[in-house]
Structure prediction request, 281 residues.
Amino acid sequence: MQLAPLDNSVVFKKLFRDPEILMTFFKDLTGIQLHLKAENIELEKKFDPPIGLIDIAFDIFAEDPQRRVVVEIQRVYYTYLLDRFTHYHYAAIMELQRNYQRYTPERTVYTIAWLTMKSEEAPFNQGFSVSRHYFESTRGVKGGESPHRMYLINPNYMDQTIPPDVGDWLKLAYESIENPTNPTVNLQRPIFVKATNLIASDTITAAERAAIMDEHEWQEKLQQNAQKERSEGIELGVERERRAVARSMLAKNMASELITELTGLTEAEVLTLQNAQSSSA
Prediction:
């Protein structure tokens, strides 16, 4: 059996719009049983009117009488990811706060971000992380913990600390992306027999394939833009460092020819820095 990749949102949504799949995944992750039917699960859910100035859309949005669940997939790394996920999380909470007499949301909100990219930065380079909001005094006393939770999971960083049931889901995602033609999945659990059947390549419709290809091209452009931003950021940092070194050397009255040779700046750039320092002196 060959699997379609779960780092594609078309495939991802096809899997998690199934109530049994979503309920089992959520229970494995949190230990809590949801009560959902197909009509309780929405794709690309938006609030009308928007919460705040950003008109966001949730990949997977589900509610039962007690809980609101948001599931997002993120393939490309950006420096603002934590801000983005935090915004999604608190927007889902604030929408439940109807007026000043009802500050307490009627449901507990769980935001789950599936990360499928590799990263060197914590918490994105961890298999399973949970955000908890509470107060802590200078004496180390904790209290006032919020019941709402935000989870980050990344199948690229599985280890022995991750609960086995959660590991099964991470393994499914990882195998669908890295080893789709010969995946190793826990088929001893019937839910994963169902899951693999749902995302098997030969069950993907023509319309779904077209959407997958469209998203693939779009994601490639996003990755290229992200790489460009990182490269430009690195180049800007190097340029600033070279100029800082040059200023320090000028302050020590070192010869401009030597500064040019050691920093790689042009004579004109060194002269501009020299004139700027003279003006500010």
